[in-house]
Amino acid sequence: MGVRKHNSATARKEELAQIAFAKLTNVPTSPRKMRLVADMIRGKEVNRALGILKFSNKEAAARLEKLVRSAVANWEQKNDRKAEAGELFISTIYVNCAPMLKRLRTAPQGRGYRIRKRANHVTVIVDTIDKPLNKEV
């Protein structure tokens, strides 16, 4: 590896070490459905976001609630203290597409219809309110 690439890689690793985040990969729901839930909690305080997710009727909310709890636990681990109420908020949350599973379903007159089973990747970044917003990972 060249010196320039090595320096930028170490700088990126040090920056990631300061950010408390959690990732959830290959969730078997469509990204559009997950984005509806992610939009509900974007920029909210963590305890309020957990309340919104707990009482939401969407299936994706349960998975996202677990992911937010994991991000909070990661923040507590990196800062060696417990998170207080009103201290943390969700600075960044985004949903990306994962590889699709393509299946065939039988159709009339000898044809086959394609079924696309979509999946997604979710990333949540948690930060304190006094810091400025972080760049995306």
Q: Please, what is the CATH homologous superfamily?
A: Ribosomal protein L22/L17
Q: What is the count of structural domains?
A: 1
Task: Compute the number of strand runs.
Answer: 5
In one word, what is the shape? Answer: flat
Using the coordinates above, name the CATH class: Alpha Beta
Q: For the report, how would you describe the main beta sheet?
A: 3 strands, antiparallel
Strand content: 25-35%
Query: How many individual helices?
Result: 4
- The arrangement of helices and strands along the chain is HEHHHEEEE
- Within the largest sheet, what's the order of strands? 1-5-2
What low-confidence regions span 5 or more consecutive residues with pLDDT below 50?
none
Report the C-alpha radius of gyration, rounded: 19 Å
In CATH, the topology is named Ribosomal Protein L22, Chain A
Helix content: 40-55%
Outline:
The chain is an alpha+beta fold and 137 residues long.
Characterise the protein shown here.
The structure is a single chain. This protein has 137 residues and is α+β, with helices and mostly antiparallel strands. It has one domain: Ribosomal Protein L22, Chain A (Alpha-Beta Complex). The protein has four helices and five strands, in the order αβαααββββ. The protein has helices at residues 3-18, 31-41, 46-54, 59-79; strands at residues 20-27, 88-97, 101-106, 112-117, 120-128. Strands 1-5-2 form a three-stranded antiparallel beta sheet, with helices on both faces. A two-stranded antiparallel ribbon has the order 3-4. α3 runs antiparallel to α4. It starts with a helix and ends in a 9-residue tail after the last strand.
